[in-house]
Amino acid sequence: MKHILFAYFLLISIGGFCQQNALKSKQEKAKKIDLIIEKYHQFDLFNGSALIVQNGEIILQKNYGQADKNWNIDATSDTKFRIGSVTKQFTGMLIMQLKQEGKIKLDDKISDYLPWISKTIGNKITIHQLLTHTSGLPNYTDFPDFKTKMVFENLSPKEFAVKYFKDNLGFEPGTKQNYCNTGYYLLGLIIEEITGKPYEEVLKKKIFDVIGMKNTGIENPKEIISNYAQGYDFDYDGYQKTDYINMKTAVFSAGAMYSTANDMKKWDDALYTNILLNEENKKIYFTPHTGNYAYGLNIQKNQNFLGSGKDITTMAHSGGINGFSCNIARIPEDKIYIILLDNTRAGKRGGQLEAIIDNIFGVLYNHKVDLPKPLIIFEVYKKMKATSVEEGIVYLKDLRKNKFDSYNFNGFENELNRLTYKFLGDKKIEDALKIIDYAISEFPNSSNLYDTRGEVYFTKKDYNASKKDYQKTVELNPNNDNAKEMLLKIEKEIEKEIEKEIEK
């Protein structure tokens, strides 16, 4: 009997010791992650809500900064943020639920549900191709009029699509992948056509109400949403309120949702159950295709992830829309979930939310993680403002050569592009040109940079130089519809100049 009691108490002691170690490990991880995110916050690279889960347990749930800077209102885990393209996994889920109910097939053509769409594309593109960005449709948010006209429209989603969506294809459906908001917008219209109800009502009934997401919905400009974060843009001189956009019309099922950290955890929890989809259809939902894209998630298989000896699957997606950035990542093998909700469009500053997630993964898998560094472009802008753009570029070259390890060069190409637009917006065209010239010298094969320089030259009314850059843009990226439309505009401007010369 004594031996039995001894073994019993020994097991209790060992169990208690293991629990203490697990708790200590959890606390240490939380402390490290908190330190990392706090540094990103200090460097103006994150502001908002963070929630990190491992083994189904919350490791860290904390908020950094303010939901509304004007009113000094701090962010909380129930503050509502726009989540942008993270909406796509919800749209994909609704399509899969309709498939499960026998109301749609993934190889159906979109013209089967949208009779008003041009037959030249409607009879070619399948539902599956819309879901996987392989439809070949042009991405409507890249259209030149999107930021200046389309975002202000107050039409129904169907009226918006009829007015703006084109019947041309960038490539034959199914042959390539090109990220396309147009496809997910059309999926929302298909959901409405099948159910006979507005997209937001279907979301609420089939997902939000089922799993208890009470603080999630589709933003409507005619409604006041309580506990809603104010969106900001950081333009090197500080934070400014973001520009207006009619989310319900201009973004719709491609990215018009808002949610909270707490609600997004409920969504992740539900994905481990059969409450929304059965096992057969969940397998389809999570199957990656071209470009590792599933139905609203980027999915990758990783061997010996971060030296852990484990083969794991990462599922992730980012979301970005006026004033907001959102990133989610999950690892089902270890029930890991990371949600970052930001109201300063931090995702545009060098893809920083992905960098935060990489650091968090490092902590969770006991991998070496370095503390974040300040973004190099902020330091360079201060120099440019204090002296000149020329001296700022010289200073930048020196820092890259001699102090590279002291700064964050993530998204360097994108940051140079943004800085160009900062000076162009301030009507300092020559300075903008110097910056974009330097950027192209560093990234000579970037179609996006040539597109930007083409815009700078167009603003300067140097149409021949603009034409040359837009031609280079199309050469590097044949799917760039903005460049194609700008080339047409340039030809008209050149014709006007020729007519003026003839009149003289």
TrEMBL record:
Domain (Beta-lactamase-related) ranges: 48-347
Keyword Transport set for record: no
Pfam families on file: Beta-lactamase
Coiled-coil boundaries: none
Keywords: TPR repeat
TPR repeats: 447-480
InterPro entries: AmpC-like, Beta-lactam-related, Beta-lactam/transpept-like, TPR-like_helical_dom_sf, TPR_rpt
PANTHER family to which the protein is assigned, alphabetical: BETA-LACTAMASE-RELATED DOMAIN-CONTAINING PROTEIN, D-ALANYL-D-ALANINE-CARBOXYPEPTIDASE/ENDOPEPTIDASE AMPH
Name this polypeptide is given: Penicillin-binding protein, beta-lactamase class C
Annotated source species: Chryseobacterium populi
Source organism phylogeny: Bacteria, Pseudomonadati, Bacteroidota, Flavobacteriia, Flavobacteriales
